[in-house]
Design a protein that fits this description.
Layout (H helix, E strand, L loop, with lengths): L4 E3 L3 H12 L2 H7 L4 H17 L10 E7 L5 E7 L2 E3 L2 E7 L3 H8 L2 E8 L4 E11 L2 H10 L2 H9 L9 H14 L11 E15 L7 E8 L2 E6 L3
Antiparallel strand pairs: 1-10, 2-3, 2-6, 4-5, 5-8, 6-7, 7-8, 8-9, 9-10
Helix pairs in contact: 6-7
């Protein structure tokens, strides 16, 4: 390829981290610093929405779409929370017995897709997953609230349930069982690291001449190419 250019191993990771920190709420507010009205309205909306939906992940740059290959060969996608770069890849936590867990057991290939609106940016990470260690799962589990742990430990993710009442009842039973004690991390709950083979950055421009570049890993070396958006 004509514009194929060798780059340092850390370059695509560093670029991701720069964009990721640029998408954080605080930085986004800085973007609005010049306009007091916009920044106040943004702050107020955030407060009101968070008060109404305290569990909602509002304005969170760590929400990514994770695509896997379904057991029937169809694409399968859902949102997950990106928790950082761990063991050379992009980490997230889940129930290994969930649909995505079963899909990843069969096919390690996955894509993680980030979209941040301000400034308009997309990062697409293609690669293969591996499971993170049990110690790592335990550490992350402990960082979660008790309510969150109870909800996750009570049911197998993606299993069919009769409704909310069944989930609530199982949470109540667990609460009784572990009253005054920590909720143990279920064996089936843990993290994955998506180790990239391809990372693609897209940045929207006002004149529609958007920027798009793809990093490709070949024999352990990253190269970069520019693509038409
Ligand atoms: C904003 C948001 C964040 C989520 N984060 C996670 C997550 O980190 N891990 C997870 O297992 N599910 C997460 N979920 C739920 C998944 O989208 C999905 O419903 C669940 O994992 C079951 O997917 P599966 O049946 O394809 O395995 C999140 C959902 C939303 C809307």
């Amino acid at each position: 390829m004509l514009n194929d250019k060798a780059v340092a191993a850390e370059e695509p990771f560093n670029k991701f981290l720069v964009w990721y920190s640029g998408a954080q709420t605080d930085r986004r507010r800085q973007t609005y610093k010049g306009n007091l009205l916009v920044s106040s309205v943004f702050g107020l909306v955030r407060k009101v929405m968070s008060a109404i939906f305290p569990w909602a992940n509002l304005f969170r740059p760590d929400v990514a779409t994770l695509a896997t290959i379904g057991l029937n060969g169809q694409p399968s996608a859902r949102s997950v929370l990106f928790t950082g770069i761990t063991e050379g890849g992009f980490a997230f936590y889940t129930d290994y017995d969930s649909d995505k867990g079963k899909e990843l057991d069969l096919n390690l290939s996955a894509v993680m897709l980030f979209y941040w609106a301000v400034p308009p940016r997309q990062v697409r990470i293609d690669g293969k997953v591996h499971k993170l260690s049990r110690e790592d799962a335990g550490r992350y589990w402990e960082s979660r609230s008790r309510a969150n742990q109870l909800a996750a430990a009570a049911v197998i993710q993606s299993s069919i349930i009769s409704g909310r009442e069944e989930h609530l009842e199982k949470v109540r039973q667990l609460e009784q069982l572990y009253r005054g004690k920590p909720i143990p991390c279920p064996d089936s709950w843990g993290g994955y690291s998506l180790v990239p083979e391809k990372i693609e950055f897209w940045e929207g421009k006002i004149d529609w001449l958007h920027d798009r570049e793809r990093y490709l890993l070949n024999d352990g070396n990253w190269t970069k190419i520019k693509l038409a958006p």
